[in-house]
Amino acid sequence: MKNAYRLFRRNGVFWCQNNATGKQESLRTKDRPTAQRILHAKNEVERQPQIGLQMARAYLAGSDPNIGTRTWSHVMAEMGKLKQGATLERWGFAVRDPAFNLIRDLVIIETRADHLLKVLDAGTISTNVFLRRMHNFALDMSWLPWPLLPKKRWPALKHQIRRSIKWEEHQALLAREPNEETRHFYDLMWHLGGSQSDVATLKAEDIDWETRVIAYHRQKTGTIARLHFENVIALLLEKLPRKGFLFPRLALMHEKHRCKEFHRRMKGLGFQGLSLHSYRYAWAERAKKCGFPERFAQEALGHSSKAVHRSYARGAQVVIPALESYENRNLVAGNNE
Length: 337
Fold this sequence. Notes:
Layout: E1 5-10, E2 13-18, E3 24-26, H1 32-47, H2 49-63, H3 72-80, H4 85-95, H5 113-122, H6 125-140, H7 167-176, H8 180-192, H9 196-200, E4 207-208, E5 213-217, E6 224-228, H10 231-237, H11 248-251, H12 255-269, H13 278-289, H14 294-301, H15 306-313, H16 323-336
Antiparallel strand pairs: 1-2, 2-3, 4-5, 5-6
Helix pairs in contact: 1-2, 8-13, 13-15
């Protein structure tokens, strides 16, 4: 049987060429015996594909004894060890997706692209998101020797529209909310832009009244969010407890119940597409619109990534002033000096 590949050398480096398609590929070696072994392996794989899989297993087993038994459930478990709190709870819920049953007990090294495509077909947008993470984690850990699906072959993610809460909607919510503690909670969410769990579990000890700073560690990422406040927030904080949790009832409530309570209020008001996270979008958009420096906004929201922060602020409608107005302002300032 004719070989599928032939060997040649270019600038001292050995290459192989597919005799059928003419495609050329560098073998990345200048040593002829090494190049010939690689070429022989490629030709054997073309003649008997199963031999190629067995050879790959044999080589990989030399560096990782568990390569032949490690399954995707192991990936799910190991990724869960890196998470905590509410994030761990969400991860546990995500990996229980029935679509993952198609690969849960499948050995990673035996996984093919069509296995992942079947999972994506059976799942939802969430399945797509978490399967990508598991695939990339396996690659990073060298449990998967090569990508099963190139980036361009993953189905596009189509998230639901996320929007910020408007001032008028926030005021309508406050007017409708009968519980004083919850009403203050929504109002502080507007002013701080924190995630609902972080704001609900704020303590009086997180407030430095001397410097007028609120600082806390974000539960999701552990990063520090730090925000200076003035009179409006100060007046609100004075209405809250001076020891322990600022919102004692809400601090002990599960986040899903706080979300459901907020959703009922929004449904009653006839507002669509809003969640408690909409307050973070609103704060980021307000900061961008008024020209608040991005590095300060990142610190206030606890964003360590500029990309993440910009995704939150992308809905802001910024009014760009005319260059002439800036020139005239600088001219007036110069004359006054």
